[in-house]
């Protein structure tokens, strides 16, 4: 998947690590990748505000994490603030943003998940460089 800001051309490409090559089925703007991840289906929804992935596990996974590989070669910087990740242009303005992740458990209760960045430098100061 690749996302690009039309105005600044800041872009990121990302892929769910460990996702199997499976056939996609779609209906109503939602794509289903059945069995795409060990023990889980992946549902993808693109919409006007962005894109969302939902990973649906049949049973609680042994390792409770989902890892994405992200290509930030067309991003000037990263800022991780409030569990949200911003992709910055050369002037330090956020052009793309990953909202804080969450988990919905088997009872339907929504809980905040923790976002981590590894293998790349990032800023945690919410103030702009302006």
Shape, per Cα inertia axes: globular
The ordered string of helix (H) and strand (E) elements is: EEEEEEEEEEEE
Distance between the termini: 31 Å
As an assembly, this protein is single chain
Low-confidence stretches: none
Mean pLDDT: 93
Largest sheet: 4 strands, antiparallel
Specify the helix fraction band.
Answer: under 10%
Q: Which strand order does the major sheet show?
A: 3-4-5-6
Q: Tell me what portion of residues adopts beta-strand conformation.
A: over 45%
Radius of gyration: 16 Å
Number of helices in the DSSP assignment = 0
User: How many beta-strand runs?
Assistant: 12
Structural class: mainly beta
What brief labels describe this structure?
130 residues; four-stranded antiparallel sheet; three-stranded antiparallel sheet; 0% helix; 49% strand; globular
What features would you describe in this structure?
The protein has 130 residues and is mostly beta strands. Helices cover 0% and strands 49% of the residues. The chain has no helices and twelve strands. The protein has strands spanning 2-4, 11-16, 25-27, 30-37, 40-47, 50-57, 68-74, 77-81, 84-88, 94-98, 102-104, 110-112. A four-stranded antiparallel sheet has the order 3-4-5-6, with no helix packed on it. Strands 1-2-7 form a three-stranded antiparallel sheet, with no helix packed on it. The radius of gyration is 16 Å and the shape is globular.
């Amino acid at each position: 998947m690749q996302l690009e800001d039309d105005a600044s051309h800041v872009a990121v490409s990302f892929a769910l690590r460990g996702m199997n090559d499976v056939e996609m089925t779609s209906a109503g703007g939602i794509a289903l990748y059945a069995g795409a991840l060990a023990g889980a289906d992946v549902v993808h929804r693109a919409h006007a505000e962005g894109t969302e992935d939902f990973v649906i596990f049949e049973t609680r996974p042994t390792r409770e994490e989902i890892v994405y590989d992200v290509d930030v070669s067309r991003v000037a910087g990263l800022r991780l603030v409030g569990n949200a990740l911003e992709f910055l242009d050369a002037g330090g303005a956020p052009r793309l943003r990953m909202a804080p992740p969450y988990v919905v458990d088997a009872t339907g209760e929504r809980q905040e998940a923790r976002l981590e960045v590894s293998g790349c430098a990032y800023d945690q100061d919410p103030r702009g460089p302006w």
